[in-house]
Every structure is written in structure tokens, then in C-alpha cells.
Amino acid sequence: MKVNALHENDIIEIIFYACFAFFLMGTVMVLFFYFSRKKIIQKELEKKDLEIQYQKELLSAVIITQEEERKRIAQDLHDDISSKLNIVSLNSHLLNTPNLSREEVTEITANIINLTTKALDNSRKIAHGLLPPVLDKFGLHAGVEELCLEFRSSKVINVNYDNKVLFDMEENDKHLHVFRILQELMNNSLRHGKATVISILFENTKEGKICYYSDNGIGFDLDNNKNQKGLGMKNIQSRVAFLKGIITIDSAINNGISVVFNF
Ligand SMILES: Nc1ncnc2c1ncn2[C@@H]1O[C@H](COP(=O)(O)OP(=O)(O)OP(=O)(O)O)[C@@H](O)[C@H]1O
Ligand SMILES: [Mg+2]
């Protein structure tokens, strides 16, 4: 009988410890899940914060560029058009002066013709800068061809351009972004990369239309903050985002740059 009682106590003790162990394990597991979940949520929040920060940077880059563009257009209009039209206006009033000699009238008229021709030329240049007419009339392919010709004419750089895509003129608004991206990339290759060869290729793939761009210039360190101060690359990123595409930029010192984006 005494042996049996001992046995029962042992069993109760074992059950008690087992329950306690289970309870402890359960608590540890609950705490573990709670803290790991908290950590995951915190990480997600940090990621979201970074994304928002990045979007803000892109947006401010777009706004700054817009303002700079407006300033440039205002300056062009002021210096190249307004000042000339002012003199044209003065000359036109002069024509009303009584007793002008024939020579004076001829001189004033020549002045007016000369200045209006210049103002017309300049207004055309300003308009072309805003929307390249070739792109508008003949589409992206013709626009890029003309861009390549302009760069080749500098004689310091050669451009290989290959296009395997038929661009729909209905999408010209979208294509203007692609044109501006290439314009910026090419300017950078010439200005910073000191490249002598640029290659551009358009191709159709499963991901849509893809543009491959590369140069053989001096390249740069993508992670160096010094190289993240300009607006050009930020604008490129926001244009690609606008096109709902993805962009990959690769570069290393002495290894040129290669850029791939879809649109
Ligand atoms: N093709 C390239 N070869 C070498 N360095 C480049 C090239 N493209 C960009 N970089 C480097 O990256 C930096 C950032 O380029 P980004 O176009 O954003 O600015 P930026 O050209 O300096 O100024 P912005 O475009 O605003 O006039 C450049 O200053 C340059 O150091
Ligand atoms: Mg630039």
C-alpha cells in the first residue's frame, strides 16, 4: 500500500512538471512569435519609410527640373525673343516719324526684317527643344536616329543604333520619355564618361519593349554619394517609373556604363 502511494505521488509530480514544462514552452513560443512578428513589422515599416523617402526624392527632382526648365525657357524667351521684338516695336514706331528719307525707311525696314527673322529662328529653336519635331511627326525611331546623327556630327563620339521594334505613333507621349532618357544618358556619356562609342538597341521581349544602352567611357562608382547629386539620373528613374518599367544601371570605374530598361 505504501509503495502504491509513493507511485501516485511520483506520477502527480511528473504530471505537474510536464504541465509546467508545456506551459513554459508555450509561453516561450508565444513570446518568440510575438517578438519576431514585431521585428518583421518593424523591418517592413523601415522598408516602407525608405520607399517613401525615395519617392519624395524623385518627386523633388522632377519639381526642381521643371523649375529649371521653366527658368531656361523664360530666359530664352526673354533674351532671344522679347528683346528682339522690343527693337522691332521701336523700329516700327520710327517708321511713323514724319519726313523720313528713303534711305532711312529702307534701313529701318531692313532692321525689322532682320530682327523678326532672328526672332522666328530662335522661337523655332526653343520649340524644337521642348518637343523635337521629328519625334512628333515620325516617331521615336526617327527621333533617336536624328539624336544619333547630332552626336556623331561632333566627331568625338560614334553611336551604334539598332532598332528591332515598330513604334506605335499613338504612343508618342510615352515615347518622348524614352527619348529624354536617351538624351540624358548620351549627354552623360559625352560629358562625364568621355566615351568614344555609344550603343543603343531596342528589342521586343516578354517584358515589353526593352532598351539596352551602353558606353565605353571611364564609368563611375554607383555607390559613391558624389555621383548621386545630379538630377539627370533621378529624372531617368522617375521617367521609367512613369512608364511602369524597371531600370538596371551598371557601371564601374574604367568599365563604362550599361543601362537596361523596359517600357
Ligand atoms: N556615362 C557616365 N560615365 C561616367 N560617369 C557618369 C555617367 N553617367 C553618370 N555619371 C556620373 O554620375 C553622376 C550623376 O549623373 P547625373 O546625370 O544624375 O548628374 P549630372 O550629369 O552631374 O548633372 P545633371 O544631369 O543634373 O546636369 C555624374 O555627375 C557623373 O559623375
Ligand atoms: Mg546628367
Describe the structure.
Helices cover 65% and strands 13% of the residues. By secondary structure, the protein is α+β, with helices and mostly antiparallel strands. A hairpin with a 5-residue loop joins strand 4 (247-251) and strand 5 (257-262). Helix 1 runs antiparallel to helix 2, helix 4 packs parallel to helix 5 (172-191) and helix 5 (172-191) runs antiparallel to helix 6. It starts with a helix and ends with a strand. The structure holds adenosine-5'-triphosphate and magnesium ion. Residues 184, 187-188, 230, 232 line the site of magnesium ion (MG). Its EC number is 2.7.13.3. This is histidine kinase. Residues 176-261 form the Histidine kinase/HSP90-like ATPase domain. Residues 69-134 form the Signal transduction histidine kinase subgroup 3 dimerisation and phosphoacceptor domain.
Cofactors and ligands = adenosine-5'-triphosphate, magnesium ion
Using the coordinates above, name the CATH class of the largest domain. Answer: Alpha Beta
What is the ordering of alpha helices and beta strands? HHHHEHEEHEE
Classify the beta-strand content into a percent band: 5-15%
Mean model confidence by pLDDT: 91
Distance between the termini: 88 Å
What is the molecular shape? elongated
Radius of gyration: 34 Å
CATH superfamily of the largest domain: Histidine kinase-like ATPase, C-terminal domain
Number of structural units classed as domains: 2
Please name the CATH architecture of the largest domain: 2-Layer Sandwich
Strand order of the largest sheet: 1-2-3-5-4
**Number of extended strands:** 5
Number of helical segments? 6
CATH topology term of the largest domain: Heat Shock Protein 90
What structural class should be given to the helix and strand makeup? Answer: alpha+beta
Model regions low in confidence, pLDDT < 50 over at least 5 residues: none
Helical content band: 55-70%
Major pleated sheet: 5 strands, mixed
